[in-house]
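[Discussion] Sanity-checking designs against the backbone

I'm trying to build intuition for which residues belong where. Below is a structure token string of 481 positions. I'd appreciate it if someone posts a full sequence so I can compare it with mine line by line.
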């Protein structure tokens, strides 16, 4: 090769020996997306597995997505929770496995530089109700409920938060600060034109009633004058009154307090820490979290942690009433990056029925109960109760009532799922989910009492079959001897 020919190549070398550095692909530059949740528990997921199909971007979040092994179990309809949206639509696109495929495409760079703003991501997760059924029933426990929170948070960062989502998420704060909101809800429910206006402006389904706040929120009873100051630590209980019990059904919180008191426990209702500048009621942050407003949810979680610090240090159990709230403390809060205190709380917090069952198993329960009239009671479990196996505790507690006859309804999600069933575009599919199993089972026994521990479940049942379901705390209070 002569000198003239060599001079025509960069560095005087032929192309077979010289390769200019390729520009860094966008997909590599995006590998370290800013996570809104902590996905570090998936750090080693799929490593060394040539078939894991971990997307090129997204870091540990991508590994959480890739735990799906595409065995298509979510496209079957056995008894269980998974997957309400597929069951109701019969469309594979609304199953966890198909959602994973879309998310993998997005994280592999196929949706451009801003994948979470792409409508294909929105459409894939549109009907996910966050039931957590797949986390329990999927072969590899894909956590689509948590994945959806991350996706919504990323969409919020890219596109902003809609007024409706901001309203629904902020209800715990608004209900405490603006008491006139209760009157507005009642007016809206009785005024068709106002309901239609709400649908037009905010997308809240005009054909659905909104839950109406109680005339007065829950107020903790004064401490018993006879209660000894040196009550043993193993007889002390912290009662967490969530937003739904506090503002909508305060009788449930009162019933739980009465039952725990009758069982011989010194009950303390959780209140804000002394250093809390706001002093408004505490909230687990569930409404913010479910709508992808993670920073606000994290702030609420930190308020709870501050208030619970003394109880956590002393090992006092924390007892709550609403499955979605209490199980968020055990699950979703561990992804908020809140450290050891969140892990300690997750081990120390119980649903009301879990605590009663635990104390009975330990032979420490001092609870005298009498038979109840009314025939066989139908029991509907909240999806999150089913997802963590808490229905066993509920069964144990119901068996404590003498001669009590009950039957668990085999059903998937009720379809209300918090705000989901109230949204104009989801109201119809919400009803279809309820009509798969739950509402037909209730209609088949029109005179049977109904028990449902989930706030949304009770609302769906009231609308669907005009029945008044009760929380287990009310049932136990009625059975107190």
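Best answer:
Here's mine. Compare freely.
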């Amino acid at each position: 090769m002569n000198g003239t020919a060599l001079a025509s190549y960069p560095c005087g070398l032929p192309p077979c020996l010289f390769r200019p550095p390729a520009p860094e692909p966008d997909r590599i530059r995006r590998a370290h997306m800013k996570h809104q949740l902590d996905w570090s528990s998936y750090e080693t997921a799929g490593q060394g597995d040539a078939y894991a199909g971990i997307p090129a971007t997204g870091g540990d979040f991508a590994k959480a997505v890739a735990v799906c092994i595409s065995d298509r179990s979510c496209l079957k309809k056995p008894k269980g929770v998974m997957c309400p949206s597929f069951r109701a639509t019969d469309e594979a696109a609304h199953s966890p496995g198909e959602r994973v495929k879309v998310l993998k495409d997005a994280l592999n760079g196929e949706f451009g530089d801003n994948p979470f703003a792409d409508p294909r991501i929105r459409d894939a997760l549109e009907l996910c109700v966050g039931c957590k059924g797949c986390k329990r029933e999927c072969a590899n426990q894909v956590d689509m409920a948590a994945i959806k929170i991350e996706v919504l948070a990323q969409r919020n960062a890219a596109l902003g938060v809609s007024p409706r989502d901001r309203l629904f998420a902020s209800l715990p704060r608004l209900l405490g600060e603006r008491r006139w909101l209760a009157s507005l809800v009642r007016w809206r429910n009785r005024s068709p034109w106002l309901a239609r206006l709400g649908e037009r402006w905010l997308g809240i389904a005009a054909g659905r009633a909104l839950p109406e706040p109680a005339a007065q929120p829950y107020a903790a009873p004064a401490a018993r004058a006879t209660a000894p100051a040196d009550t043993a630590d193993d007889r002390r209980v912290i009662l967490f009154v969530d937003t739904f019990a506090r503002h909508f059904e305060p009788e449930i919180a009162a019933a739980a307090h009465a039952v725990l008191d009758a069982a011989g426990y010194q009950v303390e209702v959780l209140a804000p820490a002394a250093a809390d500048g706001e002093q408004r009621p505490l909230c687990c942050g569930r409404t913010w979290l479910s709508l992808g407003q993670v920073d606000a949810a994290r702030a609420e979680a930190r308020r709870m942690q501050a208030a619970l610090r003394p109880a956590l240090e002393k090992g006092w159990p924390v007892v709550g009433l609403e499955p979605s709230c209490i199980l968020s403390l055990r699950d979703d809060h561990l992804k908020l990056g809140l450290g050891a205190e969140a892990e300690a709380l997750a081990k120390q917090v119980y649903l009301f029925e879990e605590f009663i069952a635990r104390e009975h198993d330990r032979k420490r329960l001092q609870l005298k109960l009498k038979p109840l009239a009314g025939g066989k009671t139908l029991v509907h479990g909240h999806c999150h109760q089913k997802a963590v196996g808490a229905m066993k505790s509920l069964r144990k507690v119901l068996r404590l009532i003498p001669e009590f006859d009950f039957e668990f309804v085999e059903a998937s999600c009720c379809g209300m799922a918090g705000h989901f069933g109230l949204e104009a575009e989801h109201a119809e599919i919400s009803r279809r989910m309820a009509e798969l199993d739950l509402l037909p089972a209730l209609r088949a026994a029109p005179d049977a009492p109904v028990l449902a521990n989930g706030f949304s479940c009770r609302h769906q049942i009231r609308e669907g079959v005009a029945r008044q379901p009760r929380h287990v705390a009310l049932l136990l209070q009625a059975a107190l001897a």
